[in-house]
Amino acid sequence: MAPFSTNYAEIQHDEIEALRSIYMEEFQEEAATVGAWNKSSDRAFKITLKPSSGDHDELRFVLRVSLPATYPKTVPKLAISFSEEVRAAVQAEAAEVLSSRPKALVGSEMIFEITTLLQDSLDHAARAKDQTVLTLEEERANQQAAAIRQAKVEQEQREVKKHQVLVEEEQYLAEMVSTQRAKEDKRREKVQTESGNANPGKFFECNPCSVPIRAVKYYQSLLKHAVHNVIEGLQ
Which residues contact 227 (CB under 8 A, 6 or more apart)? Predict the structure, then answer.
């Protein structure tokens, strides 16, 4: 009875066709390379991997595969390249897959399992990038909200300050009028005393209290001008 012979070419053909149907336009067969002793040609192809979500197409792995004549009894020749946007840590993770998994899977078809592991790594990188973008957007939103709150607080403080200035103005004017009236009363009493109370109202017939009233109006004008300047500075 003839010994059983493994048809490696058929196994490779079936695996390649399965990969072609899975990855479709992302699968591209390349020119066969001459194997050892120039007796056979190695089947070669490449598979381009992108994030499963459809986002971040700038993240890409390109896996190049060359199947020796005795694959899967022997490990395939694998090489991988990355787009510029793939971080070094992700590249190192993918390189580790290519270094360790073929040895563990030797003897069986392994390309799809390897590409699945690479796809998982790529999808994780895409999710991490999404999270980074989201975090930055949240930070900007928080900063904008904080700026709005701060502007509101400052506006409220300006309003309070304006109110305080107006209250102080009214108090000052009231005190000034009271002071002027007190001075006028004392002056009137002095005049009455000096005139012997002969005709206490005659001295003030013409224009009573005219001097202190003009003074009050003058100081009131100056104070309002100063208050206006203060309020302008608070705008």
Answer: 165, 166, 169
**Who's near 39: CB < 8 A, 6+ residues apart?**
69
Which of 90, 28, 104, 118 lies closest to 65 in space, CA to CA? Answer: 28
- Sign of the Cα pseudo-torsion (110, 111, 113, 118, in order): positive
How confident is the model over 115-131, as pLDDT tens digits? 999 999 999 998 888 77
Omega before 72 cis (within 30°)? yes
pLDDT of 38 above 70: no
Neighbours of 98 (CB within 10 A): 16
Q: Report the C-alpha gap between 138 and 142 in whole angstroms.
A: 6
Whether residue 214 has pLDDT greater than 80: no
In the chain, what is the greatest distance between 2 CA atoms, to the nearest angstrom? 161
Q: Which helix (H) or strand (E) holds 168?
A: helix 111-194
Find residue 82's DSSP bridge partners: 61
- List all residues 6 or more positions away from 224 whose beta carbon is below 8 Å from its beta carbon: 169
Task: Read off the pLDDT band of 66 (50, 70, 90).
Answer: very high
- Determine which helix (DSSP H) or strand (DSSP E) holds 78, and give its type and residue range: strand 77-82
Tell me the three state secondary structure of residue 1. coil
CB atoms within 10 A of CB 119: 16
Task: Please tell me the number of Cα atoms within 13 Å of 61 on its side-chain side.
Answer: 32
